[in-house]
Backbone:
């Protein structure tokens, strides 16, 4: 810092060149992304039941992390930008989680099983003891 | 004294603006601004992804049927094309960082543009045009007669709005790259100043990430394995 005060012209030329990423790193990330693309396409043709969606999303998140950390240099930066990125995904999480907490709970039955007579979706009594409802 | 003042405030060919202490501070400010913009973009596309999740949950069999109307080979090809373009974009920034000639920077930028244009070309020629011929474009060309009429229409609406919005971002990206090529040709980028390249690269990689999620969500998780073969 004291050097910069003595020689401001020189300090201006201190630039972010320290973040230069080797070509080999970029190529490795590229190969990783290509393998991920092939893998996710291959897995889609295998019947994993509900896990197909989970596996596809896990691979997509891994590919995203590769792009964000290396191509977008987030691994190498030390600025406020990281907070902005984390906040953006936090807000996205709020939007998705609160929207789904509404939507996924709309079809819940009126009475949980074991608490008394249960009502089906068509309001037909599905309990074995219908007379207790009246 | 006077000379020093003039030197500090005169427009600097290296791109250094006088309100910053150092080039690094200027570079960080530019990058922070771009990430703030990308945060709004994450939420913008996030709104579409959220509604996609909800409607997929409500109409799961219809969304799986609709997904199987799409051609995986074109979606996968376009994913590869975009990943290549992200690599060439990163290499164009790197060639400015290490002080390569402006011809090298322009080479990588033009290659990125060609790959971006190839993505849009494949999308238009082999996907949207064929969707039109097959009659699975809601509201414009709809002759689909399979099961889940309304649900498949809903899926195809999501498909066209999400891929359309993504393609629009690609077109904007091609415009940005054109500006970068002109700046590079004028010798604006040096190892000390390459912020426009860096923050445009952030945008380009972001658009790539959106596609990395669109590809499995639209093409792959619709029960492909039930079709057999391939």
Residues:
């Amino acid at each position: 810092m004291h050097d910069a005060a003595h020689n401001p012209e020189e300090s201006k030329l201190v630039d972010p060149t320290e973040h230069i990423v080797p070509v080999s790193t970029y190529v490795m990330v590229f190969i990783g992304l290509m393998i991920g693309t092939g893998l996710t396409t291959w897995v889609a043709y295998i019947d994993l039941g509900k896990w197909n969606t989970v596996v596809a999303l896990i691979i997509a998140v891994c590919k995203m992390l590769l792009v964000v950390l290396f191509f977008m240099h987030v691994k190498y930066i030390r600025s406020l930008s990281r907070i902005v990125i984390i906040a953006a995904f936090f807000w996205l999480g709020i939007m998705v989680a609160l929207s789904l907490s509404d939507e996924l709970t709309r079809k819940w039955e009126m009475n949980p099983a074991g608490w008394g007579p249960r009502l089906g979706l068509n309001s037909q009594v599905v309990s074995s003891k219908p007379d207790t409802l009246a | 004294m006077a000379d020093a003042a003039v030197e500090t405030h005169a427009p600097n060919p290296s791109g250094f603006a006088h309100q910053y202490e150092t080039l690094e501070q200027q570079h960080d400010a530019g990058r922070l601004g771009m990430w703030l913009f990308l945060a709004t973009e994450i939420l913008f596309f996030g709104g579409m992804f959220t509604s996609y999740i909800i409607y997929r949950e409500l109409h799961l069999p219809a969304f799986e049927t609709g997904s199987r109307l799409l051609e995986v080979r074109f979606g996968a090809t376009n994913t590869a094309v975009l990943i290549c373009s992200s690599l060439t974009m990163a290499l164009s920034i790197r060639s400015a960082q290490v002080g390569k000639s402006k011809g090298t920077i322009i080479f990588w930028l033009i290659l990125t543009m060609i790959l971006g244009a190839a993505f849009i070309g494949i999308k238009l020629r082999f996907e949207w045009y064929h969707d039109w011929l097959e009659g699975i474009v809601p509201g414009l060309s709809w002759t689909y007669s399979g099961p889940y009429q309304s649900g498949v229409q809903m899926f195809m609406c999501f498909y066209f709005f999400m891929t359309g919005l993504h393609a629009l971002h690609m077109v904007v990206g091609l415009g940005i790259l054109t500006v970068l090529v002109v700046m590079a040709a004028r010798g604006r980028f040096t190892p000390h100043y390459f912020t426009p390249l860096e923050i445009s690269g952030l945008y380009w990689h972001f658009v790539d990430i959106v596609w990395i999620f669109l590809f499995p969500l639209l093409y792959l998780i619709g029960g492909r394995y039930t079709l057999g073969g391939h």
Summary: Chain A has two domains: 2-109, 110-134.
